[in-house]
Write a structure and sequence with these properties.
- Keywords: 2Fe-2S, Iron, Iron-sulfur, Metal-binding, Oxidoreductase.
- One of its GO terms (molecular function) is oxidoreductase activity, acting on paired donors, with incorporation or reduction of molecular oxygen.
- This is DUF2945 domain-containing protein.
- This protein is α+β, with helices and mostly antiparallel strands.
- The strands form six sheets. Strands 1, 11, 12, 13, 14, 15, 16 and 17 form an eight-stranded antiparallel sheet that branches. A five-stranded antiparallel sheet has the order 23-22-19-18-24, with no helix packed on it. Strands 2-10-9 form a three-stranded antiparallel sheet, with no helix packed on it.
- The protein has eight helices and 24 strands.
- The protein folds into three domains: 199 residues, 2-Layer Sandwich (Alpha-D-Glucose-1,6-Bisphosphate, Chain A, domain 4); 96 residues, Rieske Iron-sulfur Protein (3-layer Sandwich); 59 residues, no CATH class.
- The chain is globular, with a radius of gyration of 24 Å.
- Fe (ii) ion binds next to helix 4 and helix 6.
C-alpha cells in the first residue's frame, strides 16, 4: 500500500517522496497490528534459548584502563581486559568489603580495588569467582546461570552482521521502567513505526507478519527512513527475535542491504519504587556497497554520535510504549484492553474507519480529578499557589521512601511520584491533587 515504488536499490540512495501523505491521513495500521499476532510472536521469542547470556554494553566501552560494569537482574557485574587483552569479568563487588569494582581502575590488565588495593587478574581469588563473558566485537555479554535459569551455552546467540571492515557501528544504551519482554513486544509491533515515529519513518507497510500462512516468525516491512521533509531512503527490512531478549532488524532490499539494528533488553532490577528497570542496548551496524561508503567509514567517529542521537530519539518514544505495556500488565488491564481490541475488531466492517481512528486517538478519560494515571502522563498540580507542570514517574502502592520523605501509600490509597518540568525535582502527590493535561491545555 506504499504509494512509492518498492525499495530496490536505486541509482541514488535518497529519494524524494512523490506523493507525501500527511500523518493523520496515512492508512491506520491497528487492524493489522492484531494483539494476538504480536503476543504470539512475543511468546515464541520468549521460549527461545538464550543460554543465560545477557548484554552488558559496548565492546568499545571496555578500555585498557577502565572496566565496564552493569547490573543484571540485581547482580552487579564488571568486565575488563586482562594482561593478554582477553575479556574477563565477574561479580561487581570486591570480595574484601564489597567496594563497587565499577569504580576501580585497570592497571596492566589487573583490576585494582580502589578501597584497599585488592588486585584481580580475572581468575578466582579469595572468594571472587569469574563469570563466563563474551566479546562479539560490538557488544560484551555475561552469562549468569542463576538469573537465566536455562541450559547454559558456550556463547550467546549473536546475529550475523556485516563484516567489520565493511561496516560502521554505533551502540546506544537507555533505561526504561519495564521488563525485557515489553521492549521485545515493542519491537515485534512494526505497525507503530510511521504512527509513533513520523519524524523517522514514513510510508510503512507490513508486507508479511507471522501467521500470514508462513512458517517462519519473520516480519517483513517496507518503510522509508525520513532524512528531511520529503527526502527519504526506502528499504525493505525483516524483523526477527533470535533469542528472548533480542530483536534483530536486517535490511534486505534497498539502500544498505545487510545492515542490521540489534535491540537487546537486559533486566537491571527494581527501582526505588519496586518497578522493574530494563536497559536497552541497541547496536546499529551499517554497511553499503556504494563507493562513497568508504568515506563514511573514515568518518565513523563523527557518524557515531549522529547514529546514537537517532536511536535515542526513537527510544524515548519506544521506552514510553514499553513502560505503558508493563504498566497495563501490572494493573491487570492488559486482558481487558485485548478484549476491547477484539470487540472493536469485530465491529470493523460496520464502523467507519475515520470515526474509529478518532475515537482511538482522542483522550476520553474524565477530567483528571483522581483518575488513574500512568508513567509518562503529563500533569499539573498546585504548588505554593501557582500551577506546576510535570510528568508522572510512577504509581506508589506501598509505604516507601520517595522524593525525600516517607510515603504512606497502599493499593487502595495510591500516590503518584511526579517530576516537575521546571525544576526537575521529584514530588509525591495524591491522585486528587493531580490534573492530567489534555491536548490544548
Ligand atoms: S573493599 Fe576492595 S580491597 Fe577492600
Ligand atoms: Fe518504535
Amino acid at each position: 500500500m506504499s504509494p512509492d515504488p518498492s525499495p530496490r536499490r536505486a541509482r541514488y540512495p535518497l529519494r524524494l517522496r512523490r506523493r507525501p501523505v500527511r500523518w493523520e491521513r496515512q492508512v491506520p495500521t491497528w487492524r493489522q497490528a492484531r494483539p494476538a499476532v504480536i503476543t504470539g510472536a512475543l511468546q515464541r521469542a520468549l521460549a527461545r534459548p538464550s543460554g543465560n547470556w545477557f548484554v552488558v554494553g559496548a565492546t568499545a566501552d571496555v578500555t585498557s584502563t577502565r572496566p565496564l560494569s552493569g547490573t543484571v537482574a540485581g547482580t552487579e557485574v564488571v568486565v575488563w581486559r586482562d594482561a593478554r587483552g582477553r575479556l574477563v569479568g565477574g561479580p561487581g563487588q570486591c570480595p574484601h568489603l564489597g567496594a563497587p569494582l565499577a569504580d576501580s581502575p585497570v592497571r596492566c590488565g589487573t583490576l585494582v580495588c580502589h578501597w584497599h588495593g585488592l588486585s584481580l587478574d580475572g581468575s578466582a581469588y579469595v572468594g571472587w569467582e569469574p563469570l563466563p563473558v563474551h566479546d562479539d566485537g560490538v557488544l560484551v555479554w555475561v552469562r549468569l546461570d542463576a538469573v537465566g535459569g536455562e541450559e547454559p551455552t558456550r556463547a550467546p546467540v549473536v546475529p550475523v552482521r556485516p563484516a567489520p571492515a565493511a561496516s560502521v557501528h554505533a551502540v546506544w544504551t537507555g533505561v526504561g521502567t519495564c521488563e525485557p519482554r515489553d521492549v521485545v513486544a515493542n519491537r515485534l509491533d512494526p505497525w507503530h513505526g510511521a504512527w509513533l515515529h513520523p519524524y523517522s519513518f514514513v510510508d510503512l507497510t507490513v508486507v508479511r507478519a507471522p501467521g500470514d500462512g508462513q512458517d517462519d516468525d519473520t516480519f517483513v516491512v517496507d518503510v522509508s527512513f525520513r532524512l528531511a521533509r520529503r527526502v527519504v531512503v526506502p528499504v525493505r527490512a525483516e524483523f526477527t527475535a533470535p533469542e528472548p531478549r533480542t530483536v534483530l532488524m536486517r535490511i534486505t532490499e534497498g539502500e544498505g542491504v545487510g545492515s542490521v539494528v540489534e535491540t537487546h533488553a537486559t533486566p537491571l532490577g527494581p527501582d526505588g519504587l519496586g518497578r522493574p528497570r530494563t536497559a536497552v542496548v541497541e547496536a546499529v551496524v551499517a554497511t553499503s556497497q556504494r563507493p562513497g561508503f568508504a568515506l563514511a567509514r573514515a568518518l565513523a567517529p563523527a557518524l557515531r554520535p549522529l547514529m546514537r542521537t537517532a536511536a535515542g530519539r526513537l527510544w524515548r518514544d519506544d521506552l514510553a510504549y514499553a513502560g505503558r505495556l508493563r504498566d497495563l500488565r501490572e494493573r491487570g488491564m492488559k486482558e481487558k484492553g485485548t478484549t476491547m481490541a477484539k470487540n472493536t475488531e469485530s465491529r470493523k466492517n460496520t464502523k467507519d474507519t475515520k470515526d474509529t481512528r478518532h475515537a482511538e486517538n482522542t483522550n476520553e478519560t474524565g477530567n483528571g480529578k483522581g483518575e488513574k494515571l500512568v508513567q509518562g502522563d503529563e500533569v499539573t498540580w498546585n504548588s505554593h499557589g501557582s500551577t506546576t507542570e510535570g510528568t508522572v514517574e510512577g504509581e506508589i502502592t506501598r509505604r516507601t521512601e520517595a522524593a525525600g520523605r516517607t510515603v504512606d501509600a497502599s493499593p487502595d490509597d495510591p500516590q503518584y511520584e511526579v517530576r516537575s518540568a521546571k525544576s526537575g525535582k521529584p514530588a509525591v502527590h495524591d491522585p486528587s491533587a493531580l490534573r492530567k493535561k489534555r491536548t490544548g491545555d
